Amino acid sequence: MTPSPGRLVGVLLLAGAVLASCVAEPPAGGTAVAADDARSQAEPLDIAVATARADLAARLDLAGEMIDVVEARSVTWASGDLGCPEPGMSYPQVLTPGVLVVLSAGGARYHYHGGRGGAPAYCPEDRIRPPVQGGESDRWK
Question: What are the residue ranges of helices labelled H in the chain?
């Protein structure tokens, strides 16, 4: 069954509206950037810190402003466990680029470990392993 011309125009208009809503306003003299692309251009370390801070705020039922950033840097983990191995699990034994975020709230420190591009996860104190020395620089590549 062939759609009527009026129905086809309606579908095309709807598709155009959906696509237009996915594109951010172009900068002056620039080109349009998809919303996901704009977010991916943000500094990965800033995103990791914001993610860790939001998780800790929810975990402790605190306002984000009550949480201090002690350390945030790109690191190289010794293996796929990202410096936070779970008991009974096995991980690839390969150097893994990632991020370390250490936060402070109420006099206690909280470690968040993550891989490159992934959201960092809370690492309990008894599982914390340091990143390898002489690893990747403190800049994301």
Answer: 5-21, 35-40, 44-60
